[in-house]
Amino acid sequence: MKKIIFNLLFMVCLSIPTFAQNGMVLEGLTIKSSILGKEMKYSVYLPYDYKTANRNYPILYLLHGLGDDDSGWVQFGEIAFYADKAIAQGQTTPMVIIMPDGLRSFYINSADGKTKYEDYFFKELMPAVEKTYRIRNNRRYRGLAGLSMGGYGSINYALKHPDLFCAAAPLSAAVFTDNEMENLDDKAYADLGAPIYGPGLKAKNRINANNQQNSILKMIELAPADSLKKVKWYIDCGDDDFLINGNMAIHTALKTKGVAHSFKVRNGAHNWTYWRTAMPDVLQFLGDAFHQ
Q: Which of 23, 27, 180, 188 has its CA 20 to 30 A from that of 43?
């Protein structure tokens, strides 16, 4: 009987994935923001050799979705597991991953001007973390990724700042066509449109000046092709996701401008199961982008 129990335990141990060296996650770290007028949280993943190697690392800014905070990718996305595995198997390069608390900001300055999150990100967060950690602070080694609201944020930042980022991997990006935005019901618009375009707007009034500045599709349309081509793009959205039309429109817009990109539509919906299964390919994509 003891031998049987031992054999069962041995088989269980064999079935648990282990990596020779594991990275480290620190959660709930803070930056005092004068722009937002409060302390802002962020979490960080440090690769396995961070404490022992005398080197600087590429950096990934990994953005959470609406309703989560800086712990979302740690707790639900299991980013440490996927990063450890990808690094151990040589599928990506060791990197520092910064996961900021994006509030419900869509990572932009709010239409009413009260919450200047985008200013905070570029003027306070990035300088602070890239001074705190050993970062190769050059666009060739700086990437973006995120889901839903964070997918919107990652593609928005890469479009606006191709001089700062070499790659962007939005997952299930919260992007709507003009027709979809006009037809959102008031509750959905309050959550998904108001932070970008302004509160309380109806139908065609939603396609306003803020739309020109923060509509992903409009930014792609207006951007010079050479600017778009500076960034490596990876776009992924589930076929059962309510955001699939907007993501397909991103693909069409980039294709129309002759911009090379990876576009994946896999079986899945708007949930963590889908986003977790995306991470091996996302990390490999980013590792390839950092290697140039």
A: 188
Instruction: Measure the CA–CA gap between 94 and 200, rounded to whole angstroms.
Output: 45
Distance CA 216, CA 285 (A): 22
C-alpha separations of 203 from 180, 184, 186, 193 in Å: 10, 8, 10, 11
Which residue type, as a one-letter code, is found at position 108? Answer: I
- Kindly report the backbone phi and psi dihedral angles of residue 100, in degrees, each rounded to the nearest multiple of 5, phi listed first: -80, 155
The alpha carbons of the chain give a radius of gyration, in whole angstroms, of 20
pTM of full prediction above 0.85:
yes
Q: In whole angstroms, what is the distance from residue 92 CA to residue 153 CA?
A: 23
Q: Are 107 and 117 in contact (CB under 8 A)?
A: yes
Q: Where are the domains of the chain?
A: 23-291
Query: For every one of its 292 residues, what pLDDT tens digit does the chain have, with 9 covering 90 and above?
Result: 544 444 444 444 444 455 558 999 999 999 999 999 999 999 999 999 999 999 999 999 999 999 999 999 999 999 999 999 999 999 999 999 999 999 999 999 998 889 999 999 999 999 999 999 999 999 999 999 999 999 999 999 999 999 999 999 999 999 999 999 999 999 999 888 888 788 889 988 888 887 778 999 999 999 999 999 999 999 999 999 999 999 999 999 999 999 999 999 999 999 999 999 999 999 999 999 999 7
* Contact (CB, 8 A) for 166 and 232: yes
CA 213 to the chain's CA centroid: 20
- The CA distance from 23 to 229, in Å, is 33
CB neighbours of 4 closer than 8 A, spacing ≥ 6? none
Residue 88: how many other CB atoms lie within 10 Å = 17
User: What's the CATH class of domain 23-291?
Assistant: alpha beta
Structure token digits, residue 39: 């302390």
